[in-house]
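Q: A reviewer asked whether we had any structural model of the full assembly, not just the individual parts. We don't, so I'm hoping you can provide one. Inputs are below.
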Amino acid sequence: MYTVYGMKASGNCYKIELLLEQLGLSYRWIEVNSAAGETRNAEFLAMNANGKVPLLQLPTGEFLAESNAMLFYLAEGSDLLPRDRLERARALQWMFFEQYSHEPYIAVARFIAGWLPADHPRQQELPRLRERGYAALEVMEKHLDSREYLVDSAYGVADIALFAYTHTATAGGFDLQRFPNIVAWLQRVRATPRFVAQTVVTQSH
Amino acid sequence: MYTVYGMKASGNCYKIELLLEQLGLSYRWIEVNSAAGETRNAEFLAMNANGKVPLLQLPTGEFLAESNAMLFYLAEGSDLLPRDRLERARALQWMFFEQYSHEPYIAVARFIAGWLPADHPRQQELPRLRERGYAALEVMEKHLDSREYLVDSAYGVADIALFAYTHTATAGGFDLQRFPNIVAWLQRVRATPRFVAQTVVTQSH
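A: Here is a predicted structure for the entire assembly that you could use as a starting point for your response.
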């Protein structure tokens, strides 16, 4: 059985929950409070030297870090990872886009707007984060103009990776109504077999 | 033949040059001056809506973006991408680490310290970038304590991805002499077959 060390409120962790549920794999979930420093103690750092969740423990006991590497690993051999060489690379293209051009703005804006007090100095980062986050949403909107899913017409790991923080973007102050293709895509993702919603999406200060 | 749209001074672009040379694949290189806005004009955005180099054009004419997705695509079937499922996921783990926890600090510190004037306001970002960059180097140093390369004992795409900006980290103000395992690993990478050094590593203001 797989073990996931994760935090339910984290979009990166929710990716793994969603994929495991859709693949019908059994797993246990160990909740780790990253905000309280639980990923930085010696016990956790021995499992993942980079001190981050999610972290996947395989049935063999080995660990795998980085949410999108975990998606790729778990989905291999299933319909959620393309078998074609170029399509598989395109799934990776969107997953790298997510971690470099999307998550650092959209997830961080959500964290600052939703988790930190209104007078916290990091609130001043929001305008820049929103500018960059909107640029990422524009790229997705344009791409989805002619497609049902991110990689050709099949739902898969790239959609899961980008659904994770896009579906809560409004919590970071993003107006998704400007992006009808994204809104329609979010609905298509929610309608896929065995979809599960993220159960914890906000946290009080 | 492959076509690479890239900028020689960019580590993300150098990754592709290094891999193509080591695989012995023929390609043409089209130099694009990202700093002069050449990735943001209509012609370039029609090829890559995210407006970034490197960008790979396949012999079929199709485009693939994101440097690490390109590494994965090009290396498939070669010894530079592990064939084992878990090792392949570990290569991806290190490539996602590179884009999320390493490049945004080490590459950006190099850009600010090496490209921007000494009185530019972004110089004030350097202390935070160095703190985060050093944290990434610590993770690598610890991992390389018992390994010759990042993924078990075989050189491959994960090493290429992390070599790209680690080898120029000193230009961003990082003292690599603190990390003997990294220094030894950089030398091992330089000694791999068909290795080519990055030809442009600095730029005048």
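A: Points you may want to mention in the reply: The interface with chain B takes residues 49-50, 58, 62, 64-70, 72-73, 76, 85-86, 88-90, 92-93, 95-97, 99-101, 103-104, 139, 142-143 of chain A (CB under 8 Å). The two ends of chain A are 35 Å apart (CA to CA).
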